[in-house]
Amino acid sequence: MTVGFGVLGPVTAWDGAGDPIALKGPMHRAVLARLIVARGRVVPVGHLVDDLWTAPPEGAVPAVRTFVAALRRALEPGRPPRTPPALLVTEGPGYALRTAPETVDAWRFEQALATPAALEEALGWWRGPAYADFPEAPWALAERARLAELRLRAVELLAGSRPPAEAIADLDAHVTEHPWREEGWRLLALALYRTGRQGDALAVLRRAREQLVSRLGLDPGPALRELEAGILRQEVPARSVFAEAAADYERTVGARARLDSTVGLLRDLAVTGGGGGLAAAGRHRMATIAAAEELGDPGLIARVIGAYDVPAIWTRSDDPARAADIVAAARRALPPARGAARARLLATIAVESRGTRDADAVAAAREAVALARELGDPALLAFALNGLFMQSCHRCGLAPERDEIGAELITVSGEHGLVTYEVLGHLIRVQARSALADDAAADTHAAAADRLAAEHERPLVAVFTDWYRAMRQATPEAYRSAARSLTGAGMPGLENGLLALALLCLDRPDHTLDYGPYEPWARPHALLADGRTEQARDALREVPDPPADLLSEALWCLVGRAALAVGDRGALTRAQLALTPAAGQIAGAGSGVLAAGPVDDVLASSLPAGA
């Protein structure tokens, strides 16, 4: 029986049929809630006593054990006598709740933040304030505040993904209830502006300023100031011209031409529309391909797939299932004749197969570059080089090769006005020079990327340069600040688990954060932090090879560190063999977002004889 737990409101539990489980009194619910807050870690009995009573009575420890026993009977009613519990377990000095992330509504809610389509449903899971039974409990305060912040962020993300006219009423209510939320004010003003209500948008921005100054003593931040300046520059007429031209186009142009044009719009939306634009372009892309396939025109299908040459800097896919579908469609459309159509589809395969260790994708990248050079097409060469970059993580230590790709992209793009790929080249060199400990060059390329982004409206560039500067500062505060820039950026492949991993690599872990896809490499360290050395050793034996992406060196370093901590010579040797080609480099810095220290530190490590 799968048991579900609810903390987004009063603390409750459900059985496999969705029926409530009787949890007895408030002390029983408090024990359960305290264990959920711990996210699988052991809570010593003494801590539970201190958390449940301000002045613990005599017999407090036996009382806690009684509460735990009652909870076990309620949660696992069919467990045979004298068999160990599977959910609420005893370990060492205390208890832990061992349950999957999808069984706790708050944990599922965090995961849903990475998927705009799931936000409306996820917001419906809230039945009241988080941990509503325990509004003053010190052990719940931080978690209640964190979840409340996530809920407000979800409301704003959902509003930002909806048509502007539909979002206005909800956003107005949102800022009335939460007047300190600058993002709420920005979204409301933007929605009004996009529906042609320029005066109302400016009035909202004035309200925002008044509220922020009177309540917090703060002036509006840069996002609100920039939006106000944009509205005052009279951009609404441009919007009207676009709408009229689009309507005329819709009336007069046929289906094939519309699909060709749609890809161009999606490409522009992805690179200039911020996080919402990137996410929207991704959602529409597969539908555009499917529509082209329905028309059965091979040339159209190849153009629709291959024309989406949006530069890609991160080697973990935002949507692996969609990427696999695009690769399959590209392979179906791949023409045998050597030419631009084949090169574009090969480059698409290389870009969308990022992180997969697919030998065919590596071959596709190399052939695309060769074809582009033969054809003398600089835009095609830039796209093909992007594919080659995506396939340049098949082993550790390849930062010099990526640096060469970045340098060629800057040269080719600069000579032919390919601004977006010029930015990509600079970001690639930020990563590569960081891995090679050349901070001065990395700083120069980060500044160049920011300058081009400001001149040509490439808003997502700042996400990567903010993270780069956080990596250079190497403090938890800097990383947490950079993590806020990922909110609404439309890049779950980058966002998911990144903050937790960055703090762990900094040796300042926060094991209450979600490690996302990096959990297998973080788990031994979390277990060690709880003093569970044997379990950490077991977990280390189960750790897989890292994926072929920009963080592989950092993950291998985590394997090496854990191996030293538990005395696992085999795991240490495995990490050292993988990291040897990266000798002299900074582990993880080749990602441009986090660093795990010199690779040579792991390579020089050893265990005592007999360990």
Question: Can you describe what's shown?
Answer:
The protein has 611 residues and is mainly α. Among the domains are: 4-146, Arc Repressor Mutant, subunit A (Orthogonal Bundle), CATH 1.10.10.10; 162-237, Serine Threonine Protein Phosphatase 5, Tetratricopeptide repeat, CATH 1.25.40.10; 498-603, no CATH class. The chain is built from 30 helices and five strands. The chain has helices at 26-37, 45-52, 60-75, 105-112, 119-123, 138-161, 164-177, 182-194, 198-216, 222-232, 236-252, 255-272, 274-295, 298-306, 320-333, 340-352, 359-375, 378-390, 399-416, 419-435, 439-456, 461-473, 476-484, 492-495, 498-505, 519-529, 533-542, 552-566, 569-579, 599-603; strands at residues 4-6, 12-14, 43-44, 88-91, 94-97. The strands form two sheets. The protein has a three-stranded antiparallel beta sheet with strand order 3-5-4. It has a two-stranded antiparallel ribbon with strand order 1-2. A hairpin with a 5-residue loop joins strand 1 and strand 2. Helix 13 packs antiparallel against helix 14. The longest helix is centred in the N-terminal third of the chain and has 24 residues, at 138-161. The protein is globular. The mean pLDDT is 92.
